[in-house]
Amino acid sequence: MRRKLIALLFLAALCARAGTPANRPNILLIISDDHAWTDYSFLGHPHIQTPNLDRLAREGVTFSRGYVPASLCCPSLASIITGRYPHQHQITSNDPPKPAALTPAEFYRSAAFTEGRAVMNRHLEALPTLPRVLRDAGYLSLQTGKWWQGHYRHGGFTHGMTQGGRHGDDGLDIGRKTMQPIFDFIATAQAQLKPFFIWYAPLMPHDPHTPPERLLRKYTARSPSLHVARYWAMVEWFDETVGELLRHLDQRDLAQDTLVLYLADNGWIQSPDNPRYAPKSKQSPYDGGLRTPIIMRWPGQVRPRQSRNLAMSIDLMPTLRAILALPPDPSLPGINLLDPKALKARKAIFGECFTHNAVDLFRPAANLRWRWMIAGDWKLIVPDPANEPRAAVELYHLGRDSHENFNLAPQQAARVARLRAQLNAWWDPAREPQTVKEQQAPLGEGRP
Question: Which of 142, 95, 136 is nearest to 119 (CA)?
Fold first, then answer.
């Protein structure tokens, strides 16, 4: 009897390993929130320590020139989960239009807010999100942390924490208060012999900047102000939670079978004078709001290296489809980041920034503030005349001016014209219909 039991346990262990073959790895997606591209020790920050993210960068492929298309949380996260630009998935803003007569507090309690968020949720339900694609491939999926689209099932997750609050409710406990829901979910997936997908998007280092006192003490003497010290300490606190996840994978003998992905949803440059962000940061078209390292670690499958190729958050969906040997989706604008030919063929990347509150939930152009593009080291920023009437066209050479201090557009009119033609060929909001009726998402592929 004892031998039979040992044999059964051995067989179960083999089956557990067999549940994650080379083209069906577990997937852990780590998304930091309001985190500047400069604020990692592996990218040379002189004070902030991020040993666990450093480990990921060392053990995986790191795209140091990674970007999100929009520098605002809700549209950026929607682009990550759909693999599409905001003007394609139509979730361009954090919140729906706010009636002028309402204060923000009144608005969040109003029918206008509830109905507007329902429209935004339907935009997401109409698309094949990453959890839906993975569900059809046999995965269990878990939502934790930041999540703007109501109940976690609106995104196609099989499991989750958020029940319907504005941007996370119960899900925002992850990282700051507990990691246990993730560990429990991994145990559930293993018990069912299923590969898993985890969305780990804690409200970190996002404000409120309330780090443990031990970390705040560490950075207070090194920073120019208490506000900066709090933000720096939040970055290391987030990094510690990444370490908890990596250690759990090691302890469960899952590291070899798990693809770990990392990026930030948008940037943040801490103001030294107050708790808010500085200019050229979040909600801006500058690298301080848009740029992020993108890391992929999969031991034995992805060769560790540093890459200067341009990469985007919208590339994660086509990359994962390729890993799973799924048919390419020609409607996706991104590329497979593990395809050297695709990386070499990419000549430019594009993006767009929108108003915090939408003007029109069905017409992305009405919410537009800036479009931007990068070709080589050249970056063009084009303001929308309706929402940014006093802004000028801007051109920067990122190789010589990484913080975008010197606008070369007045001296480079011909280059601006060439790049602007490429930008218009990508998306020209002037050609968008002025009136768009809501289209109800069909039951089936798009909806959970």
Answer: 95
